Known about the structure:
The chain is an alpha+beta fold. It has helices at residues 4-10, 47-60, 111-119, 137-143, 150-153, 187-190, 224-236, 249-258, 280-293, 305-324, 341-354, 381-400, 419-422, 425-438, and strands at residues 17-18, 40-43, 63-67, 83-87, 94-97, 102-105, 123-124, 160-166, 172-176, 199-206, 208-209, 213-221, 243-248, 269-276, 296-301, 328-335, 358-364, 369-376.
Amino acid sequence: MVDFEKLAAKLSGPSALITDLEGWEDYFKDATEESVRPRAVVMAKCESDVIATIRFAKEARLTVTGRGTGTGLSGGAVPDGDSIVLSLERMKELSIYPERTMAVCGPGVITKELLDAAAEHELTYPPDPASYEECTLGGNVAENAGGLRCKRFGVTRDYVVGLRMVTSDGSIVTTGLLSERQGFNIQDVIIGSEGTLGIITQIAVRLVPSPSVGSTLLVAFDDPADAGRTVADIIAGGIVPTVMEYIDRDAAECSNRYEATEGLEDAGAILLIETSDEKDEEQTEAVSDLCRRNHCTTLRIACDTDDVKTLWRVRRNLSKAVKEMAKIRYNEDVAVPVSQFMTMVSFVADMNASSPLRINAFGHAGDGNLHVSFLAMTGDEAERKMIQKGVEELFHKTLELGGTLSGEHGIGKHKAAYLSWEFDEPTIRAMKKVKNVFDSESLMNRGKIFS
Length: 451
Ligand SMILES: Cc1cc2nc3c(=O)[nH]c(=O)nc-3n(C[C@H](O)[C@H](O)[C@H](O)COP(=O)(O)OP(=O)(O)OC[C@H]3O[C@@H](n4cnc5c(N)ncnc54)[C@H](O)[C@@H]3O)c2cc1C
């Protein structure tokens, strides 16, 4: 029998511990399908709440699942039946240091809140997951989140300059600018560790001057392969647009049903591109030329700010739009070298054409990133089996093309069984040894990354 009263007495407020979980079902899951009831939820307000929870869990032989806002797409924040879900969403301290072009944040700061605060000083934080209005900085660091602008500006890892993390024995590890010492680069091990090494309680990030915005283009193609080839040609031509997103016919259809937008009808595939401002005119011309050479059917350049907003809403809405079209959505986020992007998008289009399932794709094309959704219309057993088979075919093809099974959403729970498809045995052994150094009893986010 676990005596939760002992934990309640150590937390900063009486409402921080929830053991009657009626009405707390959102904390049983992330943005994927699975939902597991934990033993308790702790709404941490400060680092000492995190330490108290982890020490209590260790003593009570419970596990700890860190949670931002649960927008993850790999089951990373789904607890197990022995978990305390440790929510960091109330840890929202945020300080901007304009003279040092950096910010120090609590893990619960929403990415957009950081962007808005930085913008007041004409600064920005470039990594911008499509979920930036909802997800937390802690979740971004734990997943090494990417985003729309990441081909040009880099991913979360490229902007983290310091971390504080509470490990499984309740001690604190500090790195980078938040550390007093030099030495091993532990920070790079923590970034992307998906809550399996400890709980991140403070994050220092680098800010950069806000870039001005280039032109927004919506380009339609009949054949997805033509859109894929255009992406490769643009990158091979040394052009790095700020954003280059791919949307296939089926995903565009979902988006159009969610919110009708001119130019989405009847396209085999779409590229949504924002050129970089310094070379706006030159880049718009070069990109348009490559699109035409690859047989684009429509090329629309947004004419005013409202038009630009409408076009980017198409992309930001996509995940929700696709999810609404089905009973269940399985979302995979593979990535391949850009030179193979054309082969990959054609492969998905062929899968969709030959399958009774609805399968669509969109993603950050400049990075070779492709979010492939398998839509289950009934969610029955036969359909689930078909999806499983489709996912495994997709994974085989991705690895054959020299890609990776997760471009940005992490391994989490759902891809843990496939880790050995991508990494050889000595590499997995080395990863497990690192895990063991921080968490020898496997209390932190058990069952994630390693099944
Ligand atoms: C509509 C939509 C669009 C998306 N677009 C993108 C995109 O463009 N790019 C992208 O990379 N991702 C994207 N995602 C996925 C998701 O938003 C990111 O992975 C995000 O970083 C998760 O943040 P979160 O706060 O929701 O974390 P959660 O889902 O709560 O947790 C994610 C993982 O991080 C761990 N974790 C959370 N906080 C901490 C902490 N403080 N310390 C230690 N571990 C912690 C959890 O245990 C879990 O393993 C999208 C998701 C949705 C729903």
